[in-house]
Amino acid sequence: MTRGVFHLPGPYLAQKETSARDEGVPRGQLTARTAYASRCAYPGWSFEHTIYVPAQYDPKRAAALMVFQDGAHYLGLTAAKFNSATALDNLIASGDVPVSIALFVDPGTPNGKYRYPADKELRSLQYDALDDTYSRFLLDELIPELITSRFNIVPDPEGWAIAGHSSGGICAFTVAWREPDKFRKVLTHNASFVDLRGGHVYPGLVRAAASKPLRVMLLSGSDDTQNAHGNWFEANRAMASALAEKQYDYRFVTGSGGHYPPLQAVADYPDALRWLWRGHSLMG
Asked: 248, 253, 258, 250: which is closest to 270 by C-alpha?
């Protein structure tokens, strides 16, 4: 079964793809972490970012694009050991993920350096909002200036993916929901589909709208966060139910994992990337 609900029991251990490169796998390059100053969407704020360029990238051939919110988080620079550069090295070499340029971007702040918990409200303003400010930031500023002006990226939206954890997860879904002609693949981990800034309305919106050409990955565990804003596990289950009802291509991974550090998400990460990109070949 390629879509539906899947249960991942513990203990949650990282798979080999995130732990070390397989023998003979070439190492991709990560650019230095630098800050991008927004001029339009978030004037006065800057966003630290890093770009991953796989060893297989050839400027004469269009590559896929992946955008990760909470970039330091997905690079393994925090307690979340997704170790995306290593995972992408292995999965691109094996053919499970297409040759992809990946943009890892942190939340923006006035000084350009996101720090938790001091800046968590700024992060929420960007990631949990349901309007188009962040999607316009990506599509009108960040991606044109940092990515498509420098790399040959496939125009086919099936070759564009967006990912995030917690508030970054609902952010990823919001961008694709608003811009399905740009992003078609959505990877969320412990996404905040709760009432932080109105995200609890998404199951109803999904049911009420015509189905969109999205492939959506969800993951949450029974020990995920529960507070005054809602129950993260139940919120993700409600999203999965809505996506199933509208016959989306979706995968919801359940389990007993907690919110942070996201051990369940890390344990599933290589399989999540395989599922997201299954059957895809670059065109354009």
From this structure: 253
